[in-house]
Each structure stands twice: as C-alpha cells, then as structure tokens.
DNA sequence: CTGTCAGGTTGTAGATAGGG
DNA sequence: CCCTATCTACAACCTGACAG
C-alpha cells in the first residue's frame, strides 16, 4: 500500500491503548462466529463464559502443494517485536555485571608461603569421578514425548478424520494404555495425501472440527494475522480473570506423527514442538538481576532448548534468553530474592555457553557453580549473593578452577603441614569420635546423628547417618557417589595382582540431629577442597594412597553461612593435618611471575612443585583385602592410630 | 477503539534423585 | 523401600502492542 505511510507510523506508536476492562461483561461481542455459549453468570460453577472463537480459513492457499497449507517458498518471519523493560534489558548488549574481587577480611598478614596450590591432574577423568547432577532440563527428560490427555485426543481426532483410527482406536480409548503402546504402533504419521484429506475434511466442516472428548477444544485452520501464514492449530479455551474466556490458537507440531502443540512458534512456516525442532542446544548461563547496582547477585541455569535448522546466531541467542528468563523465574532462590525487591527484577545474562552435548554443559555448570561457591566461602569483604541452590562439584578441571580463582584474586593453597604434636579442635558442634575409644561403643540414639566418611586408596566421601554402624551402607541399592564408585570400580577389569579398591567406612563424629546437614555439608566441602589440593587419604599409611578424589557430587549452598570457611579449614587441619588458605592473588604478583607461571601451567602435567613423595601409582599398590591382610591392618593401625568406627565388619563383604 | 496475540508471570502436581 | 527437597512441565493468568 502507500509506502509513504511512514508519517503516520511513529506518531501513533506511542499511543497507549486503553487497557480494556475485560471483566465488565459486555464481552459477548459477536466475533466472527460466536453466537453460542454466551451465558456467563447464569450457570452455577463451570459455566461457559462469554467466549469468542477465532477466525478460521475456509480453504487453503491456492498455491499450496498437496499436504501443505502455504505456497512453496513461504518464508518464516520475525516475530513481532515489542518493547518492554524486559525486552530492552534482554537486548542490552553492553551490560556489565558488578565486578567482584577477593579482598581478604584480614589484611594479608600471611605472605605467600604456601607450599602447594591446586593440584592439577592429567589424563582422562575416570567415570566414577565425573561430574554428576540431575538438575536442569535434560535430553533424557525432554526426549520423552508427553502423553498428556489433550495430545492424545488431538491425535485421535485427526486419525478419525482421515479414517486411520480403526486399528489403534481401541488402545487409545484405554485410559491406562501405556505410552509405549500408543506411540509405537504405526509410527509413520500422515502422508501428504492423508494430510491433504485432513485439511479437506476440516474445510468441509467449515474450518473447525471439535476435538473428541475435549469440550471447548477445536481443530482449526487459522491464518496468523501478523504473518499471514496458515497453520493447523488447536483452538483451546483460555479462561481469563473475571470469568471471561478467549480462544487461543496453538500451532500443532508439523513433525509427522507428533500432535504436540506447546512451544511451537506461530511465525514458522512449519512450526515444530520442542523435541522436533532440528537443533537441540544445551545451554548454561550465569544470570544476575539487571537493575542491581550495589551487590553482585548471581545464579546459574542449565537447560535444554531447541531451535530450527539454520537458525541465525542472533535468533538462537534471542530464543535462549527468552527461555532462560522463563526457566529462572521458577527457581525458588530466584523467587525468594525477587520477593525482597520492590520492583520485580529482570534476569540478565552474565555468561552464556552452548553445547550439543549434555555432559559438556554439565561440566560448565559445575565449573561456574563451583567458582560461585568459592566466592561465597571466601571471607572477603565484597558483598556477594549467590542464588545457586545446589552446587554440582567440578571435577577434572583443576587448571580452570585455579585460573578462575586467581582472576578473582583468590589463591587456594596449602599454607603448611601440621606438626605431629599439634592439636586441632573439632570445629563443629557435637563430639569427634575418630580415633577415640568411644568410636567403638556408639549406639543409635534418638535425636543423635552420626557423621562418617567412606574412603579408598583414591577417594573419600562424607555423609551422615542415623546409626553408627555401616553394615548395609554399601549394599549397592543406593545411587550416591560412594555407591556409584563401588559399582563402577568393581565392574572394571584390573591387571593381574590389582584388585578393585577397597572401601572403608569410618565413623567420624556424632551430633545433634538438627546439625547433621550443616556439618555434613561442611565436611563435604572440606573433602572437595582437599581434593583440589591433591591431598591423600589420611586413614591409610603414608604413600599408600593416591591424591584422592572426592566422590560427593553436590552440596546444598543454603547450608553454608558466614564463618563456614574457617570451620572448613579447621576440619581439614584435623582430618588431613594440612592447613589450607585462600590467599590474595595479586595481579602484579602474577605478571611478575608471569613467565614462570606460564611455564608451569604449560608443562604442569602432573608435576607438583612441592610434593616430596612420588605420585602414587595404583599399579604398584598391592593393597587389597583379599590377599594381603597386612594392608588393612596397616590401615587401621597407622601412625595416627586411627580407630575406624565399627566398620571392620562392614567392609568384609567383597 | 477494540480485540487478539504472544511475551511475561505465577501457581501447582508429579517426577526424580539423593538422603537414610 | 521410604522421605524430602527440588525442578520441570503444564496451564492459567496478566498485560502491552498493534492490526484492523
């Protein structure tokens, strides 16, 4: 039309429409075809309020090929854009989060004296130590096609229309029919001709066919008013506040044999549901409230999303941001944070990483979350609010962790090894039992919980229990890190003379019931820090254990409050006889030592500057329960005369 | 001006995993 | 096997923009 219409353009854009008070009641409005169902207040409970059906097409586009509604060459169009505070935040590419840097509370009295930093391991990370965390939407979950009632009924309606439902109809009617049953039979979906027939039938019916057994749902052929693209849609009722209703068109997924209607975009010529868009993307994002200007607030999300084939980067990015804000709004910690604010915070990305592989995304999530945990632990002076609920620990990325911490001014390292005569107080409420005679006489007691560790020649795991004995702790039914470790390592084949690692449960302490989770969390983090520092199993004789991994997979951040770091340091001193520290890492220092450090990083492979002893070589470890009795004896009677709870009998079941 | 569309929000049930 | 916390999916609700 008139191309000079630009004059009219922006003048009116600004005009705000008078928000229609829908509930006023006059909404009977005779829309295109809304004559029936108009009584609103008359019917008692679930009356059919005033509704309006959507306009439908009476015939398909004349140029559309058989089985399709739009002419060949119809292009997907941009969604219509609208500008809101959220959308402008989303598009603000210059956004910078509040910087955060580690300034120790107590001025660096300790000069760099640490003997060793994070121990960087080389080689493949063994399966039993891999990052694990089930949070976030994953392929395993999303891949499952929902057998939601409506989808089945849509399917049934369509198959009936094209006369294909006779063989499978009985099954479909059975409420309990298993999903596999429904979705495995005759999976080819409709052919072009059948689809053409479907369209014809719908047009013959006036463009609208009711969905079987689903009142107020219709199958319609509808043209998107903005883009003009014609789609097969499900018209379903949307109840509005005040008892009014409206019908809304959801595009049906155009993948053969799929009848889902959620997450399909109206601007696509062939809209697809989440699982049928061509490209699946695992995304990890760091997110912060856009408006916050004083305190760094951060949360991480991981989710699976999908985009159409050949989506542009900017399109993908846009979709991802939209999905992030939807996802994050359901996170409890984010909601709680929002509740403390007068204006509802807008989530804004700090970082965004895409992966085609879920495990890679998980590694990224773990790395970012773990760094966030260290920031929360650090007794620094800059405020920081960490909204992550669960921290999946990062394993196998020691180098990256070290670098990232240093970028933040944090240097995790070993300050010193304790002298044998040095006494360390147990930092948690309750009683430390390891190595004391009392450890052997503990009985279950109401209101009392016990803390324990499970160790092997290459790992440790911390947990709590209601009972002080561990006879069935490793009976294989559970899915925790220690049980998985046992399962995986025992299934492996070893060279002659080497056996699967022996697991030993040791009673550590007891406490009041209410304290068990917080103490456990701090012990778990201690174990993780000890792993980063490359410490060895202190319950085994010198040189009879590797630099151990921690096999706890996650920790709840809510259990960690101020002061946790010093308790954790204290516990590491007690259990490992090593004092860790979070030193200040100065940038100047870094550049001073730049060359040296770069070299070190380059060939860091397994060299660790400070360690006296050779690295543990599992192949040389003759320890195993079956043949050498001495080793276990040695374990329990080593220099520190460690008593090991009542576990003796617990571990003889291999 | 009016009603529709779609993005943004909110609330809830069910699934899952990790604890014992 | 049971219990609990958490997250997802779903569905409903709210609202701004804009097409007609």
How is the secondary structure organized here?
Layout: H1 6-13, H2 85-91, E1 116-117, H3 139-142, H4 149-161, H5 169-173, H6 179-184, H7 192-204, E2 208-210, E3 218-223, E4 230-239, E5 245-251, E6 279-289, E7 296-307, H8 313-328, H9 332-339, E8 347-355, H10 358-377, E9 384-386, E10 390-392, H11 398-407, E11 410-417, E12 431-432, E13 448-455, E14 459-465, H12 481-491, E15 504-512, H13 516-532, E16 549-550, E17 554-556, H14 564-576, E18 578-584, H15 587-592, H16 594-602, H17 629-636
Parallel strand pairs: 7-9, 14-16
Antiparallel strand pairs: 1-11, 2-3, 3-4, 4-5, 6-7, 6-8, 10-17, 11-18, 12-15, 13-14, 13-15
The chain binds a DNA duplex (20 and 20 nucleotides) through β5, α8 and β14.
Summarize the structure.
27% of the residues lie in helices and 17% in strands. It is of the alpha+beta class and 654 residues long. The termini are far apart.
Describe this structure in words.
- The chain has 654 residues and is of the alpha+beta class.
- The protein folds into three domains: 162 residues, no CATH class; 126 residues, no CATH class; 209 residues, no CATH class.
- The chain is built from 17 helices and 18 strands.
- The strands form five sheets. The chain has a five-stranded mixed beta sheet with strand order 12-15-13-14-16, with helices on one face. The chain has a four-stranded antiparallel beta sheet with strand order 2-3-4-5. A four-stranded mixed beta sheet has the order 8-6-7-9, sandwiched between helices.
- It is elongated and about 90 Å long.
- The N terminus and C terminus are likely disordered.
- It binds a DNA duplex (20 and 20 nucleotides) through strand 5, helix 8 and strand 14.
